[in-house]
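tokens incoming
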């Protein structure tokens, strides 16, 4: 089982859900920077930012004990 947003609750002991970390702060920072750049120069072409979200492995993807 894998989560999609790596919330704080996913890391709690009873849950310990493996998740994909979507880097919300990084996405927000890039969005704000690009918006301010565009406001500063409306002729500037659109930009695209690609991120590689990391997988945060936890207990839900651990190997079974032997």
């Amino acid at each position: 089982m894998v989560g999609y947003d790596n919330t704080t609750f996913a890391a709690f002991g009873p849950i310990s859900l493996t998740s994909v970390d979507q880097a919300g702060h990084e996405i927000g920072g890039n969005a704000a920077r690009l918006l301010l750049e565009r406001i500063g120069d409306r002729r500037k072409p659109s930009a695209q930012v690609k991120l590689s979200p990391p997988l945060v492995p936890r207990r839900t993807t651990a190997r079974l004990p032997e």
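note: The two ends are 20 Å apart (CA to CA).
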